[in-house]
Amino acid sequence: MEDKTIRLQLSETKKEKPNSDQLIFGRAFTDHMFVMDYSDPLGWHNASIVPYQPLMIDPSAMIFHYGQSVFEGLKAFRTADGEVQLFRPQKNFERLNLSSDRLCIPPIDEEFALKAIKQLVTVDKEWVPDAEGTSLYIRPFIISTEPYLGVAPSRHYKFIVILSPVGAYYKEGINPVKIAVENKYVRAVKGGTGEAKTGGNYAASLKAQEDVSKEGFAQVLWLDGVEQKYVEEVGSMNVFFKIGGEVVTPKLNGSILAGVTRNSVIELLKHWGIPVSERRISMEELYQAHQDGLLEEAFGSGTAAVISPIGQLTWDGKDMVINGGNTGEISQKVYDTITGIQYGKVEDPFNWIVKVEAKSAVKH
Amino acid sequence: MEDKTIRLQLSETKKEKPNSDQLIFGRAFTDHMFVMDYSDPLGWHNASIVPYQPLMIDPSAMIFHYGQSVFEGLKAFRTADGEVQLFRPQKNFERLNLSSDRLCIPPIDEEFALKAIKQLVTVDKEWVPDAEGTSLYIRPFIISTEPYLGVAPSRHYKFIVILSPVGAYYKEGINPVKIAVENKYVRAVKGGTGEAKTGGNYAASLKAQEDVSKEGFAQVLWLDGVEQKYVEEVGSMNVFFKIGGEVVTPKLNGSILAGVTRNSVIELLKHWGIPVSERRISMEELYQAHQDGLLEEAFGSGTAAVISPIGQLTWDGKDMVINGGNTGEISQKVYDTITGIQYGKVEDPFNWIVKVEAKSAVKH
Ligand SMILES: Cc1ncc(COP(=O)(O)O)c(C=O)c1O
Ligand SMILES: Cc1ncc(COP(=O)(O)O)c(C=O)c1O
């Protein structure tokens, strides 16, 4: 990228902001968005913050046909003293480029992208809600826009960032969920796109989710695509189990997304001296541990909920109630610590926080 | 769908048509397109033929994030006496609905969709080229348009049909290609979306294709995602082999697309009394057959090329030259017959042809 200036075009009207207690994830968007174009051989160019607006895209654009796209998800948090801060945003842009590589999308300059979201969040700073547990969700994504029906990497892309204020995930305290182990559908397989954050993985997941939610389950637990024996993820989260005092999570194997929260949980546990290991975990093992009274906790990890305790796991008609259906001690402690760091309430020994400097704000 | 009328808004300007000998697949589009909307609880509505134009879509629309989409591909052919006809279009809409079901997209009325494309092709009839081997490519597709970042089936969709005149696939006679057997990346797996025609499958295929094309191969041959042993497809085509007098093709197993051309090839072979079977085929078997001099022909089948003979297959560094690198007898015969039927040059014993009735054309 040659030209690293960000053109700024402010919105003439301002939308009304939803009430803090009426925020629904991903439904309301702020006044502005960041857009940058890619074309061959120009590279990434034309970085701009513009009013939030519909995209004008040719119906033959590749994104509508061959799904070449990647995305990210992170949050900005408002601290008690009114500052706005991000949680490990570098990790998201690093992962975005890894996803892009798998999808044959040209990489972006990670530092520049971070600068862009800081500037965008600064412009829409008033949209960062301040009620307990609320935040501003940041969605960077890249879509392939070349108007061409051939199956080939696109030569035109748009990198876009949109912002959505979101409410507290747990309004009435953390609530453990019921999860069904999926043994018909597969989310991802070795050699596929599972470790990339790309649309097709999510499209592939809808059917299983639809089927189990009819039976009262919150999410599915995905097994590996090869043997359908080993645990991979839970819904759109990574998954952890505490078995006989040790915390385990599936090892990254190419079909599992490398969650930022997953990595943070592992770091925290190590920091606390709690045994944690990344390895292959079979359903058979989990079931046996449960039978033996050793399956002490289970939880999902992800940006949306941070920690989502699993109160029950149902596998092939067998119900495994975990920790009496209650939130486990470690689940709670990890949740409290990560959210504490995010909102600036507890010390950040890992330098995970990146401040959105209000002083670099554009005057308007 | 309640209202089955198709609103017609003709384009005020007409684009210049490319020369028949300069047509490139999927780059030029005709003057009009068909659009129909879906919303909950209205269902499919607002069917219209309108001037070809960019779509205005919210940046939060699901298609840009979670890849919920399906598509089809078929062709209209001009016969020697100037008529325009379609090849088995019902099969495409049947498959579209099967794909939609896997992707949690509401079904369309297949008969109405056929009526819509007939009418659209009639409106843009002048765009159906008449030079040898040329045709009008028809691309129906459905995209999820709800402006919502939640991972859930969209409640808004657009069904769109665009048309693109395409040149002859084989300008200098059929040309066998070199194919690399892919053993790193996987296109689809049992329990995944392989048998649906959805964007994510194609996005997942780009990387492997990019890697092998650097080494001079035209396409990859995909193996199954579970054992990486069994043949699935070749590029975006189904695949056939003639082994010791018998024609074999991989059995539909959930991860293979049920090609319309594949089905037509099987029907034709049966009609001719040539032994054909659908079954599991391992690379080991193919290699052994080649060593024994029994691998007599290999070809891909698909709407774009109809038949694409495979002159060489490279597996783990082993080159298998097939039929001396030449087009086989059956490959040629199948190609001649299917294209003959498509252009109205040979008898159509199966009733595969559907005429686009010019007399139902809208006056303009
Ligand atoms: C499939 C999948 N797994 C895991 C995660 C968790 O990743 P992170 O902790 O970075 O949000 C996500 C995203 O939220 C996801 O979409
Ligand atoms: C993955 C894949 N396999 C096979 C085919 C062949 O299908 P058809 O003969 O219907 O064109 C296609 C589409 O053309 C395809 O995309």
Q: Could you state the order of secondary-structure elements of chain A as H and E?
A: EEEEHEEEHHEEEHEEEEHEHEEEHE
Mean pLDDT of chain A: 95
Number of strands of chain A: 19
Strand content of chain A: 25-35%
CATH architecture of the largest domain in chain A: 2-Layer Sandwich
Question: Tell me, what's the shape of chain A?
Answer: globular
What is CATH's topology name of the largest domain in chain A? D-amino Acid Aminotransferase, Chain A, domain 1
Oligomeric composition of the shown chains? homodimer
- Gyration radius of chain A (Cα, Å) is 21 Å
Name the chain pair with the biggest interface and residue counts per chain. A-B, 67 and 67 residues
Please describe the biggest sheet of chain A, giving its number of strands, its sense, and whether it closes into a barrel. Answer: 9 strands, mixed
CATH-assigned homologous superfamily of the largest domain in chain A: Aminotransferase class 4, branched-chain amino acid transferase, N-terminal domain
Helix content of chain A: 10-25%
Give the cofactors and ligands.
Answer: pyridoxal-5'-phosphate
Any idea how many domains of chain A? 2
Q: Give unreliable regions of chain A as ranges.
A: 360-364
End-to-end CA span of chain A? 28 Å
- Under CATH at level 1, the class of the largest domain in chain A stands as Alpha Beta
User: Which structural class matches the secondary elements of chain A?
Assistant: alpha+beta
